[in-house]
Amino acid sequence: MAANTSTNEEKPLNSGPEVPLNKKKKWNKEYTWGYLFIAPPLIGFVLFAFLPILYSVYVSFTNYDLYNDPVWIGADNYTRLFFEDALFRKTIVNTFYAAVGIPLGMIVSLGIAMALNQKIRGISIFRTAFFLPAVSSVVAVTLLFRWIFNADFGLLNIGLGFIGIDGPNWLTSETWAMPALIIQGIWGGLGINMILYLAALQGVNRALYEAADIDGGNGWQKFRFITIPSISPTTFFILITSTIGALQDFQRFMIMTEGGPNYSTTTVVYYIYNNAFSYMEMGYASAMAWLLGIIILIITLINFKVAQKWVHY
Amino acid sequence: MADQRNWYQSKEKVRKMKKLFSYIFLTIGGLFMAIPVIWMISTSLKNKGDIFTMPPEFIPMNPTFDNYIRIFVESDIVRGFMNTMIIILPTTFIGVFAAALAAFAFAKLNFPGRNKLFFFLIATMMLPGIVVLVPQFILFRTIGWLDTFLPLMVPGFFGAAMAVFFLRQFFMGIPDDLIEAAKIDGLSYFGIFRVIMVPLAKPAIVTQVILGLLAGYNDFMGPLIYLNSPENFTLQLVLASFRGYYTSDWGLIMAGSVLALIPTLLAFFFAQKQFIEGITMTGVKG
């Protein structure tokens, strides 16, 4: 590290040039200022993240309703999660079901990015159109989609009616509520992924395509053997961040369907939220949060492990 | 030779076909993105009767601002907007200042344990936010901060790990010579930060401020958990409450959504570069 080598060159103000440098570095002014400058984020981290997290490990082994002191119940919360709570299992399934939209959205955004990665007129208009949802508020966008998915007067069913399809009662049907939320999720995520892919595509080495042209490679082969490997780090990045995001998604589910009908759109984080803030089960909610945290960690590790096989840096 | 010419011609044809195809694809995609937004604006300009006409009018026959007027008269949207501003302005500016100072120290100053402390801080970014949510709530409840703006502000004052991370990247690109020269000129460490670092890192700092304001403005989870009294509601909470108050008064709900989007859209048009840069860097939306 370049920054580290400069430590040795720098001498404390009080030591003359003839005095040999002590092996043990003396305290100097730079240390004081360094520690002072980094103190706020570190203190904030300890106060508002590190200590609360430690405390939540303890709470997850207790029964705590906020009004009475926590009561130690050992691993009861965890056994309840694993063996007794069918609803928890359902919310896990729902959460993974909702994540189906990720690969779908990635394919579409790659397609858009490839289409945009040419000398095309009006590129900034297209870019803006695709990117706008990324800066919009979840609340506003979800309210909009509640209206679009309205069974009788919503835009989607009117559109489907034009091509002779009798659209379902999207948000009040156990079968169709989740697909509706997946569609909304894809709509909202396209812009960011598209921008990331566009940046990656612009970084692909042109010489590789030229070499393929000389060897007579066709369009599909170029895509399969040059484009896909070259942009694999971006694909991996999108996959990781979208998975972590999707597993913790809940606000739009709350506004769109309130988790219904019959819990068909209750995600894990929504269930945690309900346990903590509606049923006042702080211990149980903490245990669930920890389990989800561990699941996220494991999935991320597996992703990293598998990535060694297909990501080319 | 003829072969070669044919090859070029067919190549040109393929290129044109590809372009045409791209335009069709982009137009369909663009419409898929834009139609919901146009529909939102169109609905917001209709009176109750026109919303439910069949077939629907994309361009309202009798456009009206009634929904917007009603929102300003009936709802708490203005107070919600003010509450949001009271929360996000000081939090973002102080937070980015703290983060920039720390990022400067992590990038350019030497002190024992620097890299270890940096990784300790960055570890926060790996933790799923949901794990922190419940204990943080218990903490703020214990110290009596529920139904105040403090839980939404105070943690932000200390500077976010994400901002430290990206500003540090930026500061590392600034040559050390500049700092050495400034030291010889007798500038203090804070002076170096203020006089040399901040002006050079301005684009990165502006990006962080914009992303911070956007995240705060759009935040729904935090206010939802910590604020109970309607007079404390932020804009997003007021907007979410429309869902219950005005169940199927879609014109009014859409007008509220349009109003809530206007500030972010304006910000987006004026700072498009920063938005795209910032979001590309972090890969997350606010």
UniProtKB/TrEMBL annotation, chain A:
GO biological-process terms attached to the record: transmembrane transport
Membrane topology: Multi-pass membrane protein
Xref: PROSITE patterns: ABC_TM1
Subcellular location: Cell membrane
Pfam families: BPD_transp_1
Domain of life: Bacteria
SUPFAM superfamilies per the UniProt record, alphabetical: MalF N-terminal region-like (SSF160964), MetI-like (SSF161098)
Matches recorded under CDD domains: TM_PBP2 (cd06261)
Residue span, ABC transmembrane type-1 domain: 91-303
Transmembrane segments: 33-58, 96-116, 128-149, 176-199, 225-247, 284-304
Keyword Ribonucleoprotein found: no
Official protein name in the record: Sugar transporter
Lineage of source species: Bacteria, Bacillati, Bacillota, Bacilli, Bacillales
TrEMBL record, chain B:
InterPro entries: MetI-like, MetI-like_sf
A cellular-component GO term for this protein: plasma membrane
Annotated membrane topology: Multi-pass membrane protein
Protein's cellular compartments: Cell membrane
Superkingdom: Bacteria
GO biological-process terms attached to the record: transmembrane transport
Keywords, ordered alphabetically: ATP-binding, Cell membrane, Membrane, Nucleotide-binding, Transmembrane, Transmembrane helix, Transport
Molecular functions per Gene Ontology: ATP binding
Pfam family, one: BPD_transp_1
Residue span, ABC transmembrane type-1 domain: 81-271
Protein's UniProt keywords contain Ligase: no
CDD domains registered for this protein in UniProt: TM_PBP2
Membrane-traversing stretches: 20-41, 85-106, 118-140, 152-171, 192-217, 250-271
Family that this chain belongs to: Belongs to the binding-protein-dependent transport system permease family.
Protein name in UniProt: Sugar ABC transporter ATP-binding protein
Species classification: Bacteria, Bacillati, Bacillota, Bacilli, Bacillales
